[in-house]
Amino acid sequence: GENVEQHPSTLSVQEGDSAVIKCTYSDSASNYFPWYKQELGKRPQLIIDIRSNVGEKKDQRIAVTLNKTAKHFSLHITETQPEDSAVYFCAPKGGSQGNLIFGKGTKLSVKP
Amino acid sequence: DTGVSQDPRHKITKRGQNVTFRCDPISEHNRLYWYRQTLGQGPEFLTYFQNEAQLEKSRLLSDRFSAERPKGSFSTLEIQRTEQGDSAMYLCASSLRPAGSTDTQYFGPGTRLTVL
For the segment B56-94, what is each residue's pLDDT rounded down to a tens digit? Predict the structure, then answer.
């Protein structure tokens, strides 16, 4: 089955700095690569996703880059704000499966 | 209401009791997923439905767990003879799967189960 690893597990940045979280996966058939944000006690919320036929996608301060050859994709947050503080999960989906496989999460802390 | 809803939001039960949770997906969504999340971990897949059909079940879904989606709309997840290890947040997600496309999953608020 799919093996998903996420790094780092914790990340602390100063407000205004950039944050990068990397996710590696093992299933070469994976074709969908979302990132979810989960605040304490809340549901996971999709913040950005990318399909396998695209290398990069950007939405305001958030971007995702995909390297299918190396089997990893990364979340980039620029100009971080305290409200970006949360746990972020990558959750690639295999080609033959309907479900998402979540990483263990990265706890991002943005210090004012 | 345009989002995924779950009921109840919290459930406290004694070991050995049966519990049932309900999930109402976004109305036009044909796929419905159940995940379980324990503290400090990412959600783990349990099972999913496309319309009424249960298409996949995880090895995590022991024979004490059963899920249904009888009319292709809401779904129920039942846990029989609960154990303390069943304590977790149970999350439901739904998606619209058109042919030839990859669906985006939207999560409900979850049901937090505590087994005493």
Answer: 899 888 899 999 999 889 999 999 999 999 999 999 999
Q: Annotate chain B with three-state secondary structure.
A: CCCCEEECCEEEECCCCCEEEEEECCCCCCEEEEEEECCCCCCEEEEEEECCEEEEECCCCCCCEEEECCCCCCEEEEECCCCHHHCEEEEEEEECCCCCCCCCCEECCCEEEEEC
Q: Do A105 and B31 touch (CB under 8 A)?
A: no
Say if the Cβ atoms of B106 and A100 lie within 8 Å: no
A-chain residues within 8 Å CB-CB of B105?
Answer: 34, 46, 100
- pLDDT for A36 equals 98
The pLDDT value recorded for residue B100 is 52
d(CA A2, CA B112): 27
